[in-house]
Design a protein that fits this description.
Length: 114
């Protein structure tokens, strides 16, 4: 199943100006993180910046108390994916099985298509 996302504002510019020190897997990982970090299929530039430049935190990920449990889980998954070289490694960081992580990602992707 293919899901389309819309990169808003300068999101494309942010992605184009990034140096991409890794290979295509890094791009794939970033795109997966963006899909998990964005509450809708519309990806804002500040979300792109927070994934590409995690040392510079934006207001979108400041841990505001208005986040519900599902949003906290999405943030945790996105952060684990950012810190890891593989989904298996991310699952270990989260303390869940790889199949559980993949199920959570699939569930999230289905939610944004509804």
């Amino acid at each position: 199943m293919s899901i389309e996302y819309v990169l808003l504002g300068d999101s494309v510019g942010e992605l184009m100006s990034y140096s991409w020190p890794g290979n295509i897997r890094e791009l794939e990982s970033v795109m997966l993180q963006l899909s998990m970090a964005s509450p809708t299929r519309m990806i804002e530039p500040m979300v792109v910046r927070s994934i590409l430049h995690p040392d510079v935190r934006s207001g979108a990920f400041s841990g505001l108390p208005t986040l519900n449990l599902a949003q906290h889980e999405q943030k945790a998954i996105a952060e684990a994916l950012r810190l890891s070289k593989s989904q298996g490694e991310a699952a270990k960081l989260l303390g869940i099985s790889l199949s559980s992580l993949r199920r959570k990602i699939d569930t999230r992707l289905r939610q944004v298509t509804e």
